[in-house]
UniProtKB/TrEMBL annotation:
UniProt keyword annotations, A-Z: Coiled coil, Cytoplasm, GTP-binding, Magnesium, Metal-binding, Nucleotide-binding
Name of the protein in its database record: GTPase HflX
Any one Pfam family match given in the protein's UniProt record, by short name: GTP-bdg_N
Annotated stretches, region: Disordered: 1-45
InterPro entries linked: G_HFLX_dom, GTP-bd, GTP-bd_M, GTPase_HflX, GTPase_HflX_N, GTPase_HflX_N_sf, P-loop_NTPase, Small_GTP-bd
Location of the Hflx-type G domain: 235-426
HAMAP family: GTPase_HflX
Similarity comment: family membership: Belongs to the TRAFAC class OBG-HflX-like GTPase superfamily. HflX GTPase family.
Function, in words: GTPase that associates with the 50S ribosomal subunit and may have a role during protein synthesis or ribosome biogenesis.
Localisation per UniProt entry: Cytoplasm
Coiled coil: 203-230
Assembly and oligomerization: Monomer. Associates with the 50S ribosomal subunit.
Polar residues bias: start-end ranges: 7-16
Length: 439
């Protein structure tokens, strides 16, 4: 994670537009020439905080924290400790209760941790209160995901989308920021704080920027619409799925292209479209940004044009990482997100990937647990791969296939399944035309 929080936010995770240089009144993300964002040289350390409700199983809590740690590491931070507090609902003022807050403060001070990451979104006032109490950078789930997106975005569209998400995140937090700044300047109670007029001015600056970015996205959208027109008629297939399940690996395999695939969350933020020809049947295959639980709606909205690739597809290939202990919930998250973007009723193939890694004995052993974890809680045994196959083949309404993209297992079957479905769509659309004629 960048020292000076990527788009120029200060240590509080917030930044006032007027802190910019005189020439440019709006906060600008600091990008390097290669499109990455400026990062600090020494690695930042982070502690994680989760507030699960009382009924959530320890194993689930652990799995969610593993995911949050993975996100934090992807953003460049090293996680040193996890704090969990079970509450009916988070504290309205400081998210965690007073006692837990004191514990976190003591740890952060003692270990010189640089930031505290929360597994949920914080309200602007919670963010402000936590900053005041802990005196380190506070990062909530949205900010963390936006930060990773900002590092990954390469195309003009993806960058503009990220910038829009950044300003939308900033807008409701401007007021809190003022309080923070006046406190930083040593302003006592008697000192006059910034007036409503100034806050309004800054809100206007940010709102203008948001409007500008939306317009820019519309322009970019028009350009890509023209591109899309030129490929009209060809069947379009989109790879969708939770983040890190192997979408880009499958894309590379099927299209022999070279899309960036990596064991990190959100390796793909830009969508890529490739023309693929299998058995003489051409179709367009697109690799898209992965989904994740609690993906902020705002962020989904900012990524509208990327998601159009999914909305406009004729067929969805839903990739699942079967080796992940939470794969069933991940399937639900993906289906729910597809509903949110109104792409749920498309024909779909379900591809269970990473069968080479599937191990019924596996449960989360590679962590130290967290304070408050119930050591007695048993692990439910997982079914064997054969049992899973039988269950899913029987219960799913969509065609199902089990593969390993890495070990090239069952790939010919995947190709055959794809071709069958693409051809069916094609012939339905053009009953009298050979697929080769549409290019
Ligand atoms: N063991 C194993 N690893 C795989 C398999 N398929 C992909 N991977 C690995 O899983 C990681 C994620 O793969 P990607 O293709 O980047 O996944 P993605 O779904 O595109 O991820 P995002 O773009 O981050 O959403 C990479 O390290 C891949 O090498 C597989 O079948 N088996
Ligand atoms: Mg990818």
């Amino acid at each position: 994670m960048a020292k000076n929080n990527d788009w120029g936010f200060n240590s509080s995770g917030t930044r006032h537009p007027n802190q910019d240089d005189g020439k440019n009144k709006t906060p600008q993300p600091k990008r390097n020439a290669d499109g990455t964002y400026e990062t600090g040289t020494e690695q930042e350390t982070a502690v994680l905080v989760a507030v699960p409700d009382k009924r959530q199983a320890d194993e689930k809590t652990q799995e969610y924290l593993d995911e949050l740690a993975f996100l934090a590491e992807t953003a460049g931070a090293q996680v040193t400790k996890r704090f969990v507090q079970r509450l009916e609902k988070p504290d309205t003022r400081t998210f965690v209760g007073e006692g837990k807050l004191a514990e976190i403060r003591a740890y952060v001070k003692h270990s010189k941790t640089s930031m505290v990451i929360f597994d949920d979104d914080l309200s602007p006032s919670q963010l402000r209160n936590l900053e005041a109490e802990l005196e380190v950078k506070i990062v909530d789930r949205s900010l963390l995901i936006i930060d990773i997106f900002a590092r990954r975005a390469k195309s003009a569209t993806a960058r503009t989308q990220v910038e829009l998400a950044q300003y939308q995140y900033l807008l409701p937090r401007l007021t809190g920021l003022w309080t923070h700044l006046s406190r930083q300047r040593g302003g006592g109670v008697s000192q006059r704080g910034p007036g409503e007029t100034e806050i309004e001015t800054d809100r206007r600056v940010v709102r203008d920027r948001i409007a500008f970015l939306k317009e820019k996205l519309e322009d970019l959208d028009k350009q890509s619409n023209t591109q899309r027109k030129s490929r009209e008629g060809v069947v379009r297939v989109a790879l969708v799925g939770y983040t890190n399940v192997g979408k880009s690996t499958i894309m590379n395999m099927l299209s022999r292209s070279d899309v960036f695939a990596e064991n990190k969350l959100f390796a793909t933020v830009d969508s890529t479209v490739r023309k693929v020809v299998l058995d003489n049947i051409p179709f367009l295959l697109s690799d898209t940004v992965g989904f994740i639980r609690k993906l902020p709606t705002r962020l989904i909205e900012s990524f509208k044009s990327t998601l159009d690739e999914i909305r406009e597809a004729d067929l969805l290939v839903h990739v699942v990482d079967i080796s992940h202990p939470g794969f069933e919930e991940q399937i639900e998250v993906v289906n729910d997100t597809l509903k949110d973007i109104e792409a749920a009723d498309k024909p779909m193939l379900l591809v269970f990937n990473k069968i080479d890694l599937y191990n019924p004995e596996a449960h989360n052993e590679n962590h130290d647990g967290f304070e408050g974890m119930n050591p007695e809680e048993g692990h439910t045994p997982r079914p064997t791969l054969e049992q899973l196959k039988a269950t899913y083949m029987a219960q799913m309404h969509d065609p199902v296939i089990f593969i390993s993209a890495q070990e090239r297992e069952n790939i010919d079957e995947l190709r055959a399944l794809l071709v069958r479905h693409v051809a069916a769509i094609h012939y339905k659309r053009y009953p009298n035309q050979q697929p080769q004629d549409v290019e």
